Automatic annotation (TrEMBL):
Annotated Peptidase S8/S53 domain residues: 17-97
Keywords annotated in UniProt: Hydrolase, Protease, Serine protease
Protein name from the UniProt record: Peptidase_S8 domain-containing protein
Family in the record: Belongs to the peptidase S8 family.
Molecular function terms, GO-annotated: serine-type endopeptidase activity
Amino acid sequence: MWLMLHEVARLSLDTGVGTIDLYGNCTLHHSGTSAAAPEAAGVLALALEANPELTWRDMQHLIVHTSKRNHLYDREGTHNSTINGAGLEFNHLFGYGVLDAGDMVRIAKLWTTVPERFHCIAGFFSGRKVVAVGKPSQLELFAESCRDNPESQVRIVRRQIMVLLTWSNITFHLPYLF
């Protein structure tokens, strides 16, 4: 069973989900997050029904590992897919792709729960770091374990970097607008 999440991946303006609109009329043009969110909730409910022991982290992994790149169309051609650090294809417009309900349920039945999340702090730098105009600057911080679980190996799933800059006049140049 394929499930298409109707966001910007629509091939034309004439496609959508058949439903009843606010005025009780039949429409075939329901789309966007209003259509995608309940469809995704339904797929996740099917996976949870197949395996009630799934955690929120398991659900994240299932979404990422079972999504398909099913003819996703970027009209402007500006959002090319890249391969992330885990070797998975990711696109800033479409994420990991289209939810595949059948594949998600099949894999959910056999899923082994992923380890719980630990909060790790890689390091802290306090001091002066001079950054020359037009030249790259690098600061390395190392982590050997997590404070919540000193025995664990570090495996980064997400990263957050907090930078506090003190300067009288600073300008950021972004490569594109959001």
